[in-house]
Fold this protein.
Amino acid sequence: MTDPASFLGLPSSILWLPCTIVLYAASSALYRRSNMSPLVNPTLLTIASVGLILICAGVPHKAYFEGVAILHYLLGTAVVALAIPLYRNLNRLKGRCLRMVFALVAGSLASIFVGLFVAVLAHASASTVLSLAPKSATAAVSMEISRLIGGTPAVTAVLTILTGIIGAVGGPYVLNAARVRDPEARGFALGVASHGIATARAFCESEIAGSFAGLGMVLNAMLTALVVPLAVRLLAIG
Amino acid sequence: MLGQLGLLMTFQLMGEALVSAAGIPFPGSLCGMLLLLTFLHVRGGPSDELTKVGSKLIENLGPCSYPPAPLSSRMALSWRLTAWRYSHLW
């Protein structure tokens, strides 16, 4: 079992961008064919299938990252692009402002502090606790917060993606059980709790749910960026 | 399309540069997002083309750009190394 690219005499990193994108496209096709069942989450399928190939081929993580660095850069560009739906939906905030601020603060603080306290109770190392705190913000932001407060960005990346997948897969069922039918409320809840992966899921439910999820994701990213460094300083972790 | 992508990346760069120059603990891409929001407010809204490129980026490339971070992390690496170590078993 050697690197598949080396058979063809190619540098190892050249394989992984097309591999990731093709597998993502295939996962999306499968997702659409399953009538967009939350269980067939395309991001989860992509990570699982690419991960399996990397394990079987024994590819070092550096070679993989060199190949997909452009894709990783676009994660930040997509965060910048969120200003566009945010600007277009600002007028929808009118009349809902107070309720949404309440939902945002509750959702954001719950995900930060529940994570922190569970980690502290489980006697996790300071570095793990710090890496866990920003997990509900979108990946580009959470990794940056983690680096700034002295956590390990790579661990935060894994935790952030897990948070996103759990929210995108389980969130719709929880919202159904709680009889939340309002698309604005469903979208906002998914966006605040589980960032971009759940926002992509909310866009599948409806355009309005998607816009509100995008709004929830941006607002939560900002609040998390402000609250986490402050909370870490006040609680004297790390 | 490339012009709009360039505009978004310029704001991303400005955000990173501003945060780094000011030395504040705030994510650069988020700062770029706020700069773009201000720009859109001053200009009275995004052009149709920018809206199109932005939503394509968020809905398609956004979720597709998540896999690199967890797959190339050290945690995933140690898990992969363990699998590699026992790979002779299967």
